[in-house]
Structures are given as structure tokens and as C-alpha cells.
């Protein structure tokens, strides 16, 4: 359970930092009226939707940390037999990076008001994300053809489970991306479109980050890294 | 004294008005409504309905335990199914949904001075997914083989094996699917509660001016958002084990002489995941109760809450600590002794912020102008019950005491006191307190007092004797104990007594339900602020609050939520949205 605890520690650190700016030491029973410095504390200047997405991403992060925790815990048992990762995953990783980059370009373009570039970025991101999902399915097929079936070994089960969960999240993101794209083509208000594109980019970057983490874990580098750290400490 | 008068000239809400959703038809107004107040009532009604199912199940269990062998239709399989579904409903579908979905939806926007939740559409979806989860759970009663009988903890491997009711039938599949749906639905609602507290607060409502009810619900929601994924992961993995034959939790196992196809799974992994959710869940239920009871006590004792800051810090501390105590549910799983020692220590540390809260409630009552209204009675009963259940928690938190008491009725008594009876007493108190705001009428006083005394005394007569049964070594989860030597004559009589009491207390809840329905039309008119309370929900122009909550202009908050019996003030309470200082000096009672 160490991965999830580290993740929660990060969340706790962030919450602590935020709370420390909320005047938790105030004595509200002595303070009346509207002090000038209270107004800054009313709410964040960030758009509400972004904060909502941020909270949701914390939940998603929690979910994947828990999968990873379970993975490491099972890995610790003596009969662990890892499965060989298909090399296709490298290509898929590249495609997903491309998708994130395209969305980042769309964000920049949206801030400058270049509609053509926004549309291009959104379309590229959508197509590359679909390509990533297709690539993941190909990788699954390669594995099943190689005899690495879902139920034949815990390592296999974890591989399909975690990559599948990640794929489902990308699929969900594509719904959001589709709605934003529909807005981009049907002439949504610029500020609304900009927010939509920014939200998509935030989600995409996060899922890319999750994928890199998942990839490192599944490939065994994460375990090696932790091993080295443990040796350095002891 | 940071007094910033004259504040009367402050212009109203610089805050951009929310684009409020306006319903156009009866369906969008009352059924597919995006108004948090309607959603709150939908949540509460659904939770109450499914809670009644759980009540009936507990009666059936008590029939079997109190009068073993008398009722043929309660087979051991059926008993396990009753126990499982009763526990699951009470913990998740009733308590979690009612506190967060019901009270959270109703009170958060009103108490922070918002027109609605920040994402009303998602909020509506949240309810419908919750309803779907409940329906899936109910459907398992009609599925072949009936609901799962694996116990509410659903421990593998037995949960998905043939000997367990529903293990190889539909029961466990429907149970896991229902939980997964519940978590998805809750996440949608939870995002709303958290972000509304962060972003929906009206002008002047700083975090340190929030009523403790909002603090409790807010912190509990944050915890739930971080804890429910663990249950989600456990459910998904067990569902794969059951449906697709993977071996996440299933070790190599022989069933009725036959080797199953599973191999290499770890049942302990499930326990870790389950309790990583399961322990925070206790506080997900308790923190809203803590918050609500603070407000009830302060309002009905006409006195400011003692140690508001300490109360807030304690809520945060409990929330954080509750994530590092989960393995105290697993002392008997064969863990390393140092591991157990660590978790026993964290468990005992959590008693400190909890004790601070109890002291502060008592000190709020100290020399207060206590009105023994029904909400106050329930609040007082909560303090007593919570202390009671908390003390047995200290027993069970220690490894050496827990090991012999594990799986006895003592554990049943402990968690029913601390997480069953105590939060439900708060729910009752809160319903008596806020019903006038929701309906505009008071609940009937006589029926209310009858309900309180029967419930309070009855709950003690049910659960207190269980401690003794537990100390005698009577195990829990057994459908029939007649042939055991530890089941003495007196233990049997005690069991029968408990069962009769359970029926009486259950009957009192019917009186309560009658009161709820009857008073909608026949209750005494309440007016806008019958308890003379300070928080914003009592200051709405209409009662019950109309769509948009606060009429044309949002209220501005000038003070904290606990200005009761302020010396020099005209009334014994000053609402949060009343400007001016009433010439108060720093001589006011510091908390």
C-alpha cells in the first residue's frame, strides 16, 4: 500500500498548503464585518470547472495508485512471473505524447484566438488518441496470440486490467474532446471554447502522466528503481 | 477585535451570478430536477426506503437469533443473506447516501450562501446512478440464488465460492456491480459538494466562518472521494475473478474435492483494499454527524460552540489520520506483530482529536441555556452513545484485547453503538431540526418525544447486552448457536430479550415515518426560523426555500455561525448576514 500512501501524502501536502492560506488560525468569533483581506479568501480565481476537473483527477490518480499498490503487493509474492511487454507499447507511448502535444498547441492557439489552429490541434489530438487505443488493442492481441491470456497468470491479469482501465479513461476523455470539438466547429463563444480546450489538455496531460507511470510499473523499471532506493537507504 | 464597520454600505454580491438552470415542466422540476434541494429529497427518500429493507432484514435476523429453530423459512443461507445485505445497506446505501447525498445536497448550498451546486447536471446524474445502484442491489433478491451471503466485507475466497449463497449465482455479481455504480454516482455528487464549498461560497463566507456542519460534510466528502476508489478497485478485481476466472484474490483452492482453476491470488490483498476504504468509511459517516451535532448543540443551548477552531482542526486531523489505521480491522489476518503495533498506535492517536470534540460539546453545554427540544435530546443522546461506542473502540484497537474479542458479539455491539446508533441519532436530530425548513411545518412534538425515548432507551437495551454476550465468547455471524456449551440458558434469554427490544425500536421508527408524512400537511406552521438560528439556511426569504435559494440578492456574511446570546444584542442570536458589531469588546468569552 506504499504507492497509495505516497500519493495521499502528496494530496495531503497540497491540501495543507492550501489550508495554510485559509487563515485557519483566525478567531472568527472576534472578527465581524467584511475585512478587505477576507475577499481574497472567498474563492479561487481559477474557473470552477478547472477546480472540478482537478478534484476529479485526484480521484483518478487515487484509483491508479491503488491499482499500482495492489500490483506491487502481488509482485512481492515468490511465484511472480512477469510477462514480456510488446514493443508496440513504445510506439503507443509516442502516439499518446503526440496527442498531448497537439492539445497543448490547441490551447496556445485558443489563447491567441487562431480558430484554424485550434481545430487542427483538436482533430490531431482526437485521431492520435484513437490511434493509441487501437495500438493498445493490437498489443493485447499480440499478447493473447503469444499465449499470455487474461486468466493464466496474475501478472497478465494485472496488465490487462490496468491498461484496460487507462484505455477506458481515454475513451471517456474522447467524449469530452468530441463535445469541445463540436463547439469549435459550430462556433462556440471564444472564452467558452478556450476553457473547454484547456480542460481537455489538462485531462490529456494527466492521463499521459498516468500512462508513463503505468508503463514504468508494468515494465518493471519502477520496481528496480524502488529496489535501488531501498538499497541506498539501507 | 477586527471590527470593520461600517459594513452596511458594502455593495451586494460582486460574485458573478451563477447561470441558474430553470426547469420548464413538471418532470424537470420534480423528477429530473437539477435543483440540489429536490435531489436531496430524492436521495433521502431513496435511502430511507432501502433503509427500511435493512430494518426488516435485521428483524428477520433477530427472529432467528432470539428464537432459534422457530422459523423454518430462515435457513442458514437466508440468514447470511440477511446479514450481508443489512450491513451493506446500512453502511453504504443508507448512511453514506443520506449524510452526503441527502444532507450534503440540501445544506451545503444553503449554508454557504449559494444558489445551487456548481455542477447541477452532474448532481442530477449522481442521484440517478445512485438509484440505479439501489435497484441493482434490490434486484439481487429476485435473482436465482438470491443476494450474496458473503458478509458485508465480501471476503474472498469464500465470497465467490459455491458454499456461499450467491457465490456462484447472480448474488455476488449484482452486489459488486451495484457497489461499482454507487461509487461512480457518489464521485459525481462528491465533486459537487467539494467544489461548491470551495467556489460557491457567498461574499464574506470565509472557511473559518463555515458552520461545522459544512466542515464535517466537506471533509467527509474529500475522504470519500479518496477512499471509495479502493473499494472500486477491489470490486472490479473480484468481479473479474468471478466472471472471467482471473486470480487476483483467489488462491489455489480445492472445493468439494475438486481443484478450482484459480491459482496464485492473495485474499489478504482484498482485505487491505477493502479496509483502506472501510476504515475511512467509518469517519465518512461520523464526520458529518460530528458537524451536525455541533450545530444542534450550539443552537439549542443558545451558546456559541466552544473551541470552534479546535473543532475544525480536529475534523481535519481525524480525516487525515483515518487513512492510516485500516489494518486494525485485520489483526487476526496473521500480520507481523510490529505492523499490528503500528496500527494500534495510530488507532489510539485518533482518539485524541475525537476526545477534543467530545469535550468541546460538553463545554458548549456548560452553563448554556439548554432547551430540551427534540433535536437537542437526540444530540445529547448522540454524545453519550458515541462516548460509549468509542470506549469499546479503545478495547478493540489494542491487539491483545482484540484477538480474543475478534468475531464475537462484542464487535457487533461496538460498531453498532459507534457507527450505527450514534450517527442515526444525529440523523433523527437533524431531521427534527431541519424539517421545518424543508416543509415549512414542525414535526409533531408528542410523537417526536415518544420516538426519541423508545429509540434511545431501546437501542441501549439492544446493544448493551451484546457486550456481555461478546465477553462470554458468543461468536457473531452464526445462524444458530443452540448446541454450543457457551450458549447458557441466560444467554438465550438475553438473546430473546434483545430480539423483542429490536421489534419495539423498529416499531418506533414506523411512528417516526408516520410523523414525517402526517406533518407535511398537518404539522404546526413553522415560520422561517423556528429555532432562532444564525446560519444562512434559516434566513431565506421563503420557507421552504424557492429555486435559487436566496431571492434576488445573495446574502453577505458578516460574522461566524455561532453568535448566540451575545451580550448587548437585542436578540439572543445574530444571523450571519446581519452587519454591525453591537459594541462588543474583546471581553467576550474566548473559545
TrEMBL record, chain A:
CDD domains, per the entry: Heme_Cu_Oxidase_III_2
Major subcellular site: membrane
All copies of domain Heme-copper oxidase subunit III family profile, residue ranges: 1-223
Stretch forming the signal peptide: none
Membrane topology: Multi-pass membrane protein
Keywords: Membrane, Transmembrane, Transmembrane helix
SUPFAM superfamilies: Cytochrome c oxidase subunit III-like
UniProt xrefs under InterPro entries: Cyt_c/ubiquinol_Oxase_su3, Cyt_c_oxidase-like_su3, Cyt_c_oxidase_su3-like_sf, Cyt_c_oxidase_su3_a-hlx
TM stretches of this protein: 46-67, 88-111, 117-137, 158-182, 202-226
Family: Belongs to the cytochrome c oxidase subunit 3 family.
Protein name per the record: Cytochrome-c oxidase
UniProtKB/TrEMBL annotation, chain B:
Catalyzed reaction equations: 4 Fe(II)-[cytochrome c] + O2 + 8 H(+)(in) = 4 Fe(III)-[cytochrome c] + 2 H2O + 4 H(+)(out)
Enzyme Commission number(s) from the entry: 7.1.1.9
Single GO BP term: electron transport coupled proton transport
Classification via Gene3D superfamilies: Cytochrome c oxidase-like, subunit I domain
Membrane-topology annotation of the record: Multi-pass membrane protein
Signal keyword on record: no
A Gene Ontology term for the protein's cellular component: plasma membrane
Domain Cytochrome oxidase subunit I profile: 21-558
Main location: membrane
Family annotation (InterPro entries): Cyt_c_oxase-like_su1_dom, Cyt_c_oxase-like_su1_sf, Cyt_C_Oxase_1, Cyt_c_Oxase_su1_BS, Cyt_c_oxidase_su1_bac
Keywords from the UniProt entry: Cell membrane, Copper, Electron transport, Heme, Iron, Membrane, Metal-binding, Oxidoreductase, Respiratory chain, Translocase, Transmembrane, Transmembrane helix, Transport
Ranges annotated as spanning the membrane: 38-60, 80-108, 128-150, 170-191, 212-240, 282-298, 310-332, 338-362, 374-397, 409-432, 452-474, 494-518
One Pfam family this sequence matches: COX1
Cellular localisation: Cell membrane; Membrane
Pathway annotation from the record: Energy metabolism; oxidative phosphorylation
Family: Belongs to the heme-copper respiratory oxidase family.
Primary role: Cytochrome c oxidase is the component of the respiratory chain that catalyzes the reduction of oxygen to water. Subunits 1-3 form the functional core of the enzyme complex. CO I is the catalytic subunit of the enzyme. Electrons originating in cytochrome c are transferred via the copper A center of subunit 2 and heme A of subunit 1 to the bimetallic center formed by heme A3 and copper B.
Entry protein name: Cytochrome c oxidase subunit 1
Source organism per UniProt: Mesorhizobium tamadayense
Amino acid at each position: 500500500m506504499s504507492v497509495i500512501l505516497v500519493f495521499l501524502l502528496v494530496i495531503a501536502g497540497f491540501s495543507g498548503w492550501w489550508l495554510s492560506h485559509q487563515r485557519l488560525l483566525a478567531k472568527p468569533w472576534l472578527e465581524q464585518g467584511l475585512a478587505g483581506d477576507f475577499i481574497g479568501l472567498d474563492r479561487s480565481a481559477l474557473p470552477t470547472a478547472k477546480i472540478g476537473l482537478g478534484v476529479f483527477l485526484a480521484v483518478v490518480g487515487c484509483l491508479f495508485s491503488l491499482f499500482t499498490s495492489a500490483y506491487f503487493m502481488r509482485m512481492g509474492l515468490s511465484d511472480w512471473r512477469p510477462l514480456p511487454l510488446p514493443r508496440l507499447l513504445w510506439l503507443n507511448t509516442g502516439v499518446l505524447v503526440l496527442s498531448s502535444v497537439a492539445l497543448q498547441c490547441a490551447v496556445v492557439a485558443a489563447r491567441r484566438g487562431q480558430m484554424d489552429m485550434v481545430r487542427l490541434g483538436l482533430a490531431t489530438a482526437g485521431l492520435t488518441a484513437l490511434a493509441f487505443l487501437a495500438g493498445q488493442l493490437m498489443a493485447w492481441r499480440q499478447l493473447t496470440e503469444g499465449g499470455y491470456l487474461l486468466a493464466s497468470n496474475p501478472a497478465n491479469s494485472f496488465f490487462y486490467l490496468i491498461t484496460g482501465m487507462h484505455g477506458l479513461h481515454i475513451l471517456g476523455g474522447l467524449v469530452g474532446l468530441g463535445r469541445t470539438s463540436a463547439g469549435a466547429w459550430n462556433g462556440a463563444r471564444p472564452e467558452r471554447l478556450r476553457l473547454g480546450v484547456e480542460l481537455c489538455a489538462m485531462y490529456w496531460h494527466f492521463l499521459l502522466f498516468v500512462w508513463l507511470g503505468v508503463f514504468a510499473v508494468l515494465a518493471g523499471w519502477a520496481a528496480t528503481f524502488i529496489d535501488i532506493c531501498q538499497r541506498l537507504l539501507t | 477585535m477586527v471590527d470593520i464597520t461600517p459594513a452596511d454600505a458594502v455593495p451586494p454580491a460582486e460574485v458573478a451570478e451563477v447561470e441558474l438552470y430553470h426547469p420548464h415542466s413538471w418532470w424537470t422540476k420534480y423528477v429530473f430536477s437539477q435543483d440540489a434541494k429536490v435531489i436531496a429529497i430524492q436521495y433521502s427518500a431513496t435511502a430511507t426506503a432501502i433503509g427500511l429493507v435493512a430494518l426488516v432484514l435485521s428483524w428477520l435476523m433477530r427472529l432467528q437469533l432470539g428464537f432459534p429453530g422457530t422459523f423454518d423459512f430462515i435457513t442458514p443461507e437466508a440468514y447470511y443473506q440477511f446479514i450481508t445485505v443489512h450491513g451493506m445497506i446500512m453502511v453504504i446505501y443508507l448512511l453514506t447516501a443520506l449524510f452526503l447525498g441527502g444532507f450534503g445536497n440540501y445544506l451545503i448550498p444553503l449554508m454557504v450562501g449559494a444558489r445551487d451546486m456548481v455542477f447541477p447536471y452532474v448532481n442530477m446524474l449522481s442521484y440517478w446512478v445512485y438509484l440505479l445502484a439501489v435497484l441493482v442491489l434490490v434486484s439481487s433478491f429476485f435473482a436465482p440464488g438470491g443476494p450474496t451471503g458473503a458478509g458485508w466485507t465480501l471476503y474472498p475466497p469464500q465470497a465467490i465460492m459455491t458454499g456461499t449463497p450467491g457465490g456462484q449465482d447472480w448474488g455476488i455479481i449484482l452486489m459488486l456491480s451495484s457497489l461499482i455504480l454507487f461509487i461512480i454516482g457518489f464521485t459525481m455528487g462528491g465533486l459537487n459538494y467539494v467544489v461548491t464549498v470551495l467556489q460557491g461560497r457567498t461574499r464574506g463566507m470565509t472557511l473559518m466562518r463555515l458552520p461545522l456542519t459544512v466542515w464535517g460534510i466537506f471533509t467527509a466528502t474529500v475522504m470519500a472521494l479518496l477512499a471509495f476508489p479502493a473499494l472500486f478497485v477491489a470490486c472490479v478485481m473480484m468481479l473479474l475473478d468471478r466472471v472471467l476466472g482471473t486470480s487476483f484474490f483467489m488462491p489455489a483452492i480445492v472445493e468439494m474435492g475438486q481443484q478450482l482453476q484459480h491459482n496464485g491470488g492473495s485474499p489478504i490483498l482484498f482485505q487491505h483494499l477493502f479496509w483502506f476504504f472501510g476504515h475511512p468509511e467509518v469517519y465518512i459517516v461520523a464526520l458529518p454527524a460530528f458537524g451536525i451535532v455541533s450545530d444542534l448543540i450550539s443552537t439549542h443551548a443558545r451558546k456559541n460552540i466552544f473551541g470552534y477552531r479546535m473543532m475544525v482542526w480536529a475534523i481535519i486531523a481525524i480525516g487525515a489520520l483515518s487513512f492510516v489505521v485500516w489494518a486494525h480491522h485485520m489483526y487476526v489476518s496473521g500480520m507481523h506483530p510490529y505492523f499490528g503495533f503500528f496500527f494500534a498506535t495510530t488507532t489510539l492517536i485518533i482518539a485524541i482529536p475525537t476526545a477534543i470534540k467530545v469535550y468541546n460539546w460538553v463545554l458548549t453545554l456548560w452553563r448554556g441555556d439548554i432547551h430540551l427540544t427534540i433535536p437537542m435530546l437526540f444530540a445529547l443522546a448522540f454524545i453519550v452513545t458515541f462516548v460509549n461506542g468509542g470506549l469499546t473502540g479503545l478495547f478493540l484497537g489494542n491487539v491483545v484485547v482484540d484477538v480474543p474479542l475478534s468475531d464475537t458479539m462484542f464487535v457487533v455491539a461496538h460498531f453498532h453503538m459507534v457507527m450505527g446508533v450514534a450517527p442515526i441519532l444525529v440523523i433523527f436530530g437533524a431531521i427534527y431540526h431541519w424539517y421545518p425548513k424543508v416543509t415549512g411545518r414542525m414535526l409533531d412534538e408528542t410523537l417526536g418525544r415518544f420516538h426519541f425515548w423508545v429509540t434511545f432507551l431501546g437501542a441501549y437495551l439492544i446493544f448493551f447486552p451484546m457486550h456481555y454476550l461478546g465477553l462470554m465468547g458468543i461468536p457473531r455471524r452464526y445462524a444458530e448457536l443452540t448446541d454450543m456449551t457457551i450458549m447458557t440458558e441466560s444467554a438465550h434469554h438475553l438473546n430473546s430479550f434483545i430480539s423483542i427490544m429490536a421489534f419495539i425500536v423498529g416499531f418506533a421508527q414506523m411512528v417516526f415515518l408516520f410523523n414525517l408524512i402526517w406533518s407535511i400537511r398537518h404539522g404546526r406552521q413553522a415560520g422561517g426560523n423556528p429555532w432562532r438560528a444564525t446560519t444562512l439556511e434559516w434566513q431565506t426569504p421563503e420557507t421552504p426555500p424557492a429555486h435559487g435559494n436566496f431571492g434576488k440578492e445573495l446574502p453577505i456574511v458578516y460574522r461566524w455561525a455561532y453568535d448566540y446570546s451575545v451580550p448587548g444584542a437585542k436578540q439572543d442570536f445574530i444571523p450571519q448576514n446581519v452587519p454591525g458589531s453591537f459594541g462588543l469588546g474583546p471581553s467576550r468569552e474566548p473559545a
